[in-house]
Design goal:
The protein is mostly helical and 323 residues long. The chain has 15 helices and no strands. The protein has helices at residues 3-27, 30-35, 41-56, 76-102, 105-112, 115-125, 133-151, 154-157, 162-185, 190-211, 221-246, 251-257, 261-272, 279-295, 305-322.
Amino acid sequence: MNARNKSEAKASGTLAYVALIAGMTCIAWSALFVRWTDIPGPASAFYRMLIASVVLMPAWLLPEKYRGGAAKPMSWATMGIIALGGLFFGIDLAFYNTSILRTSAANATLFGNQTPVFVGLLSWLVLRRRPAAAFWIGLGMALSGSLVILWGDKDHLASMGTGDAMALAAAAFFAGYLMVTERVRSTTSTLKFLSVASWASTAFLLLVNLAMRVPLGIPNGRTLAALVGLGLVSQVGGYVGLTYAMGHLPATATSVTLLAQAPMTALLAAGLLHEPLTRTLVLGGVMVLGGIGLANRKTRPAEPPEYEANSEASAAIAAGEEA
């Protein structure tokens, strides 16, 4: 790769991290929006995806160069993979939104963001892509910080309930979403990818709500406003940034950085839900952010050569389109 291509790839990588941080910030609001609704978790998950799907529909009418990705027609195979990812994401949301209503916001965020554990193990055991030692050390530090945050809530720590288990299940299914869609994202435009995945999740969540006979009525204006926030801020804003980052960064880097949702959500909850900002919360947040920085120093030395080539090619395409 010549100097110009290296410069373009570096700029694209920087933009990917900026998009990842912005997306993470938007997603950190999701626990608060769910708490502000007065409907069951699967119902709020359905409306979150429905609103996002409707907003993203015009993406199919935009010229390809404005959709944020490779200028290639989407094959049926690619659509199938993205739809499968949307199914995993729909299950993730159903579990996560329900867990927020059955446990504390801090616990749901903590356990729901254990995705790096599942991604790292799947990358190693299934894809034979062993993360570097720095990844595991940083991950251990970040998880330790998350446990410090949890330790501050000793009363709840003594009795882990179904809400915590549901949040863990959500983390596992979100790992499936990241792993299933990682390769196709680099050859698919951001908005088209999100549109297909969103409609797949919406359809699945509608079936889940109907099968479980969950009421889908919106009881009041506060719930409606919170659902709009879930759809526009957490889903559209959050996952436009995250999906763009997925096309230029390995899944391990993406999932580890998302751990910062825990301290970020805690700060938001302290200001808006009047939850106490304790010393253990601050200490845990510092450990989480430090672990993220360490893990992201070197996240893909053992990845196969074809991933490196694929990543560089997508970076060059993105840089060319932006120019």
